[in-house]
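Everyone, describe these C-alpha cells:
***
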Amino acid sequence: MIKAHSLIGSGDFGSAVTALKSLDTKPLLRDNSDLLAMLGEAHFCHGDLTAARTTLQRVTAEQYT
C-alpha cells in the first residue's frame, strides 16, 4: 500500500489503481476498508467516477456487515 500511496502522491493514478487492485486480490487484504478507500480515491483522481463510486460503496458495505 505504501507504493500505491506514493504513486497517488506523484500523480500516477493509473499505476496506483493497478497496484491496489492487485492487493485487493490477496486473501488477507481483500475488502480492507483502508485499501478500498485508497483505491476509490485513485479511481476518482484517474477520472473513472463509476469505478470510484462502486469501490467506495464497497467500503460502506464492509463497515455495516
Q: What stands out?
A: The first helix runs from residue 2 to 10. The domain at 2-63 is CATH 1.25.40 (Serine Threonine Protein Phosphatase 5, Tetratricopeptide repeat). The chain has a mean pLDDT of 92. The helical segments are 2-10, 13-24, 33-46, 49-63.
